[in-house]
Amino acid sequence: MRLFRNQRSLYGIVAFVLLGMPATAWAQEGVDSGDTAWLLTSSVLVLFMTIPGLSLFYAGLVRAKNVLSVMMQCFAITCVVTIVWTVYGYGLAFGDGGRLQAFIGMGHFLLLDVGVDAVSGTVPETVYQMFQLTFAIITPALIVGAFAERMKFSAMLSFMALWVTLVYFPVAHWVWGGGWLGAMGVLDFAGGSVVHINAGTAALVLCIVLGRRKGYPATPMPPNSLVLTLVGASMLWVGWFGFNAGSALTAGGVAGMAMAVTHISTAMAALSWMAVEWLNDGKPSVLGIATGAVAGLVAITPASGYVGPVGAIVIGAASGTVCYIAAGSVKKALGYDDSLDVFGVHGVGGFVGAMLTGVFASELFGGVGLDNGIGSQLSLQFLGAAVTIVYSGGLTFIIAKVLDRTIGLRVTDDDQGLDIALHDERGFSL
Amino acid sequence: MRLFRNQRSLYGIVAFVLLGMPATAWAQEGVDSGDTAWLLTSSVLVLFMTIPGLSLFYAGLVRAKNVLSVMMQCFAITCVVTIVWTVYGYGLAFGDGGRLQAFIGMGHFLLLDVGVDAVSGTVPETVYQMFQLTFAIITPALIVGAFAERMKFSAMLSFMALWVTLVYFPVAHWVWGGGWLGAMGVLDFAGGSVVHINAGTAALVLCIVLGRRKGYPATPMPPNSLVLTLVGASMLWVGWFGFNAGSALTAGGVAGMAMAVTHISTAMAALSWMAVEWLNDGKPSVLGIATGAVAGLVAITPASGYVGPVGAIVIGAASGTVCYIAAGSVKKALGYDDSLDVFGVHGVGGFVGAMLTGVFASELFGGVGLDNGIGSQLSLQFLGAAVTIVYSGGLTFIIAKVLDRTIGLRVTDDDQGLDIALHDERGFSL
Amino acid sequence: MRLFRNQRSLYGIVAFVLLGMPATAWAQEGVDSGDTAWLLTSSVLVLFMTIPGLSLFYAGLVRAKNVLSVMMQCFAITCVVTIVWTVYGYGLAFGDGGRLQAFIGMGHFLLLDVGVDAVSGTVPETVYQMFQLTFAIITPALIVGAFAERMKFSAMLSFMALWVTLVYFPVAHWVWGGGWLGAMGVLDFAGGSVVHINAGTAALVLCIVLGRRKGYPATPMPPNSLVLTLVGASMLWVGWFGFNAGSALTAGGVAGMAMAVTHISTAMAALSWMAVEWLNDGKPSVLGIATGAVAGLVAITPASGYVGPVGAIVIGAASGTVCYIAAGSVKKALGYDDSLDVFGVHGVGGFVGAMLTGVFASELFGGVGLDNGIGSQLSLQFLGAAVTIVYSGGLTFIIAKVLDRTIGLRVTDDDQGLDIALHDERGFSL
Amino acid sequence: MKLVTAIIQPEKLDDVRDTLSRLGVTGMTVTEVKGFGHQQGHTEKYRSAEFAVDFVPKVKLEIVVTDASAGRITDAIRDTAQTGRIGDGKVFVSSIDEAIRIRTGETGDGVL
Amino acid sequence: MKLVTAIIQPEKLDDVRDTLSRLGVTGMTVTEVKGFGHQQGHTEKYRSAEFAVDFVPKVKLEIVVTDASAGRITDAIRDTAQTGRIGDGKVFVSSIDEAIRIRTGETGDGVL
Amino acid sequence: MKLVTAIIQPEKLDDVRDTLSRLGVTGMTVTEVKGFGHQQGHTEKYRSAEFAVDFVPKVKLEIVVTDASAGRITDAIRDTAQTGRIGDGKVFVSSIDEAIRIRTGETGDGVL
Ligand SMILES: Nc1ncnc2c1ncn2[C@@H]1O[C@H](COP(=O)(O)OP(=O)(O)O)[C@@H](O)[C@H]1O
Ligand SMILES: Nc1ncnc2c1ncn2[C@@H]1O[C@H](COP(=O)(O)OP(=O)(O)O)[C@@H](O)[C@H]1O
Ligand SMILES: Nc1ncnc2c1ncn2[C@@H]1O[C@H](COP(=O)(O)OP(=O)(O)O)[C@@H](O)[C@H]1O
Prior knowledge:
Chain A is mostly helical. Chain A contains 14 helices and two strands, in the order H-H-H-E-E-H-H-H-H-H-H-H-H-H-H-H. Chain D is of the alpha+beta class and 112 residues long. At the A-B interface, helix 1, helix 2, helix 3, strand 2 and helix 4 of A face helix 1, helix 2, helix 8, helix 9 and helix 10 of B.
C-alpha cells in the first residue's frame, strides 16, 4: 500500500517534469479512486447488513407482538454506536495509544483531526473510519437476537453504549488497531474473533443473566414471518461481500478472492445444514438453509483474505454442520434461552472459522501461506479466540449484573408484547 | 476537476513520447474509472432510495386498503420522470441555456448528443445524467406522502409530469445547472432546497388544495405495517450515501467526508427525536426514531460536502428536534392533512439544513470554509430557500387548481380503499 | 481491453525508467482498481437480484401457503449452482475447450488455477468468474416461476443441477465463452438469449411436462402480497444495473450507456404495459406496471451495450406491449399453467430484445454500429435465439421426463400447501 | 337471557359501540366476518386471471343481554347502524340458557 | 326461524355457496375458524423448537333460514360439503327468535 | 344438545383444550375475536395521532355437547380459564336442535 501511495505523487513528478504542471492538479495525494469507490461501497453494504438486513432477519423470528422491538433495537444501536464512535470510539479502537498501544488506542476526539485530506493507505481516512464504524455497529446489533422478546429498551441502550466502549473497542484495537493480538500474528481478516466470537459470547452470557422468556421452552413461539427472515438472510449474504471483500481495503485480487471464498463458503454451509437437517429431521427447512448460510458467512469471515476455494468449501461444510448441532441438540440440552441462536451461530461459527483459518491459510490448501506453519498458527488462532471469549464473557457479565441491579434488565411482563408495552405501536394492522 | 481531466491525456502524451503508443490505447479520454465506478454505484443507490426505499417507507404508513396505491404512485413516477427527463428534462435542467442560462437550460433532446464518449468532469456524461435523473425521480416521489389515500391515479400522473417540468427542472437549473442561484453562491451540496424544500412546499400546498382524508383526524388511521416503514427508512439511510457522497462526483475525500457527516447527522437526529418524544410522550417509538433519521438525512443534504463532524452533530440534533415539533404540535394546530408529514420532515428539515449550512460550512466549525463569512452566507442560504418556497408553492398551487377544475384530483369515495377502487388489486391475501 | 491492460505496466516502465522504482511496487499487474470496484459492485448487485429480489417478486405472487417454497427454491438454487460452478461450471462455460472450444470449455477444476493474481481483462479473474457466476445463478432461478406451487423440492434440486450443467454452461460458452455463436457475430451483451430466452423456454417446457396446478384456471389463486412483488420488482430493477452495466466489465462510457438505456427501456416498458392494460381492462395495475418493467429489463439486456436512448425507448415500448399480450390472451388461449409467466415475460421479452438488438445497434438509430448492416445481423440474432430455443427446449424436456419417471416431479397433493408439506414451516403467523 | 347477534358495516362499529355503552351495555364480542347477500362485492385482476370476490367485509357483534333489555338494544343497533344503503346488515335474536363469568364463577343476569 | 351453522372444509366454500343460492338462499355470513376434531393437524419445526399444531383451518357458515326450508338446506350442505374424508365438518341447527334487516327495519321471514 | 360458547384469554386456549379432551370432548371450533368489557385496552401513538384501542384479543370456543355433559364442561372451562383477573371471560350455554356429521350424514349425540 505504502509504495502504491507514492505512485500518484510519482505521476505528479512525471507531469511536473514533462509539462510543468503542478502536482496539486492531481487527485488527493495517495488516494486511489478505485480503492476508494470500493470502500465507500463496502461501507454502504455493511451498514445495509445491519439495517435492514439483520433487523429483518431477527424481526421475522420473533412473535408478531415483538416484531418492532427487535427492529427498534437494531436501529437504535446503529445510532448510539455512531455517536459514541464519533466522539471517542474511533480513537480507542484505531488511534495511536502511544505507550499503551498494545492495549488501547487514543485520540481522534470528535474526529476533529480526520480532515477531508487525511489519508489511510490508499483511501481517505474519512472512508476508512466510516468502514470500521459499520463493524462497530453490527457487532452489538448481533447480540440483540439473544435477549429478544424480554429486555427493557432503556437497559438495552445503556448496555450497548457500555459494551462497545469496554469490550468492542479494546478487542478491535488488539487485533486490528495495532494491539498485541495482531502483533503476535493472530489472523482475523474481517472479524471472526473481533465481531462474531465477541458478540456470540456476550450473547450467551447476557441471555443467561437475563433468564428465559416466560413460557420457554414449553410454549410454542413460532416466527411471525420467515419471509422477513429469509429476506434478511439474503441481505446479510450480499452485504457480507462488503464486510469481507471490503476488508481488503483495496479493489484488487485480494478483494476478489475474499468475495469468491465468502460466496462459496456460504453456499456450502447452507447446503450442509440443509443436508444434515434433511437426514435428521426428515425435511429441509427455510430457516435451516438460511441459518446455515449465516453460519458459513460467519465462519469464512476471519479466513476470507487468506484462504482459497478449497478452504472455503471445507470451512463452509464444517460450520454448517457444527452450528446445526450447536443451535440444536446442544442448546436444547443446556436449556439456556438464546432466543435467536446468536451464540450457536456466531459464537460457534466464529470459533470454527478462526481455527480453520489457521489450517487453510496454508499454501498446502491454496491459501496465502503461513509464516510458521499450521501448528503454531493454530495455537495463535486459539489464543485469539480464547482471549476474546474470556474478556468478552467476563466484561459482559459485569455490565449486565450492574445494570440489572441498578435500572433492571427485564420488562415486567412479556405477555403483552414489547411493541405495545415499550413503544405504543403495533407491527401489523392488516 | 478540469485539470484532473487533463491528467489522463497527459499520460497519453507521456506514453506516446516514451513508447510511441497511441493515446487511443488509453481508457476513455478524461474518464477516471474509480470516480465512474462510484457514480454508477451512487446512481443505483439513489434509485434504490425511491424504489423500493421510499415506497416501502410510505407503504407501511397508510392503511392496508391503500398500501398498493402509494407504491404504485412511486413506481409510476419513476417511469414517467425517466421518459420526460430523457426527452427534454436533462436539457432543461443541465443543458446550456445560452442567453437564458441564468434561468433555464436547453438542448440534449432525447439525449441524442450524449454519446458513449461524452465526458462530464471525470466521468462519462451518460453516468452524470443518470445520476442527476435519479434526483429528478425522488423529488416528486417524496410528495406522494402528502396526498396519500385520496388522490386519483390519473390526476397524480398528470400533476407529476407537469410539476417536474415546470418546477423541478428550473429550480435544479438555478442551483446546479449554471443558473442564477448557484452563481450567486447559494450552497446546496445535494439538494436541501432543490429536492427537500421544493418537495416539502409542494406537498403542503397540494394536500391543502386536495383537502383532508375522509374522517381525518377523528378516525384512527393506524399504519398497516411499521415493519415495512422501518425497512424503508433503513433503505433510505443506506441509499442516501449515494445521494450525498455521490454528489461529490468523484471517489475521494469529499465523498468520504460527505458520507461520514451524513451518517453522523442521521444518527444524531434519530436519537434527538427519540429523546424528545420519550420526554414528551413517555415512550420512544419506532416511527419516531425512523422519522428522526429521515429528518437528519434531509437536513445534512445541503451541507454534506461542506461541513465536518461537529456541524453534522448540531445539524442532526437541530433537525430531529425541530421536525418533531413541526410534524407534531404544529401540524395538529394548523389542521392540514399532510398524510405522511412530507412538509414537516422534508420541508422543515430541508430549511433547517439549508440555513445551518451557512453556519457550519465555516472553517470555525471544521467546514470547508466560506468566502464571505457566515453572515452573508446565511442571507444567501435564506434567499435560496425563500425563492424555492415561493416558486414551488405558487406553481404547485396553479397546477393543482387547474387539474382539479379539469380532470379532478380526488377519488369519489376513500372508504373502499384505493387499491381496489383504482387498481382492482389487494395488498395482502394472507 | 487488451491494450488497456498494457497501460498500467507501461506506467511501471515509466516509473522504472524515471525513478528506478520496480514495477512490482504497483498494484496488481494489469488490474484497474476502478473497473474492479465496479465489477465487484456489479457482482453484489446481480446476486441481490436473485436473493432477495427475484425471490420476493415470486414469493408475493403465489398463495400464502406456498410463499416459503418459492423463496426456498431460489435460495437453494443459489447454493447448488455456486458449488457446481466452483467445481466445474466455470471451466465448462469460460474455460479453454481446446479442439472443442467452439462447443464447450474445460479446466478451472475447483478454481484451483484462479489465483489471487490471475487477471482477466482489467480485473482480477476471481472477480470475473464471480460476476459470471451470478448469471449462472439467476438463470435457473428464473425458471422457478413456471413450476411454482406444485414441484417437489428434491426433484427441483436435481433438475437444476442437471440443467445448469447440460444447458446453461454450454449455451453460455457458445455465446460468451469463445464458442461458435459468439464467433459468428451473434450480439448478446448481457444475456437476452443465454439468460432469458434460455430460461423462458425451459420454463414453458417444464410447466407443460409438470402439468397444471390443481384447480387451475377455475379456482382463483390471488397473489398473497403484491407488496412483496413490487419490492422484488424494484430490487430487480436496481440490481439489473449490475447485470447490464456490469457486463461492460469496465467502469467507463459503455457501462454508463448500458445503465442509461437499461433504465430508459424499463420505464418505457412499464408505461406501455400500464397504458395497454388501462385501455383494455379499464384500470392500470400494480402487477401490470411491475411486470412491464421486468419485460423492459429483459428486452434491453441483449441490447444494452450496443444501442442508444432511441433504441431503448422502442425496445421498451415493444416489449411492454408484446409481453402484455403473451402473458395475457395468448397464455389464456393456449391454456398451459406457467404460474408466474416466466415464458411470457422472459422468453418472449428476451426474443423481442434479441431481434431488436439487430436493428437498433445500427448507427442509424444511435447504436454502436453493425459490421454487416441490419439485415444480416437480424438473421444472426434470429439464429442465436432459435438455437437457444431448440437446444434449451429439447434438453429441458429430456431432463424433466427422466426425473419424472425416476424420482417424480410433482407433490402428491397441492391443497395443503408446499410450506407445510415440504418444509414443516409457515410463512406468516401474524 | 338473549343473544343479540348483529352483522353490520365495519365503519359503523364505533358508533354502535358508543350507543350501546350509553344504554349500559358493558360488554360484547366482535368478530370480523365475510358477508354474502344483496350487496355487490368487487372484482380482482392479476395479469390474465380475473375473478369476482362476492363477499364483503362485515363485523359481527355478539351481545348477551337480559330479556328485558333485548328490545331496546336491537332497536338501538338498528337505528345506529342504518345508512339505508344495501349491505347495512342484520340483527338476529336467540335465547341463552345460562351465562357464567369465568373470573368469579357467578351466573345469571349479573354476569352481563 | 332457524340458524344453520355449518363448519366445512375451506375448499368447499364456493361449491356450498353455489348450491345454496340455487336453493334461493340470498345471504349468509362466513367466518374463518380453527377446528379441532378427529382430523390430524400438522407439526412445525423451527431450529430446535418443534411443536404440533393440532387445529385445522375451517370455515363456518351461518345462515338464518325459515323453519320450512331448514331441512332442505342442511341436506344440501351435507351433500355438497361431503368428501367422505375425516374433517368434512358438522352442521348444527338452532332456533332464532327474531331477525331484523337494519337497512329497512323490517322483521320476520322476509328479512332472509 | 347444548352449545357451550366460551370467550377466554388466548393464553388459556391450550389448557382448556387439554382439560376438555380429558373430559372426552373430541371436537370444538375456535375463533379469534375482539372483546369489549371491563378489561382495559391499550393506546397507540403514531407521530401526532394518538388513539385508544379498547378491545382486547380473545378466543371464542364453540363446543356442542350432550345435554348431560353440558354442566361438567362449563364447570371445567370456568375452572381452567380462571385467573381471577379482569378479562377472564364468559361462558354462555344455549340449545341446539340438531347436529349432523357431514362425512357420514349421521345425526344426534353420536355426532359430537
Ligand atoms: N340469511 C342470512 N343469514 C345470515 N347472515 C345473513 C343473511 N342474509 C344476510 N346476511 C348478512 O347480512 C349482510 C347484509 O345483507 P345484504 O343482503 O347484503 O344487505 P341488506 O341486509 O341491506 O339487504 C350480508 O353481508 C350477510 O353477512
Ligand atoms: N363438538 C363439536 N362442537 C363444535 N365443533 C365441532 C365439534 N366437533 C367437531 N367440530 C368441528 O368440526 C370439524 C370437523 O370435525 P372432525 O372430527 O375433524 O371430522 P369429522 O366431522 O369428519 O368427524 C372440526 O374441525 C371442528 O371445527
Ligand atoms: N354481554 C356480553 N356479551 C358478549 N360477550 C361479552 C359480554 N360481556 C363480556 N363479554 C366478553 O367477555 C370478555 C371479558 O369480559 P370483561 O368484562 O372484560 O371481564 P370479566 O368477564 O372478567 O368481567 C370481553 O372481552 C368480551 O369478549
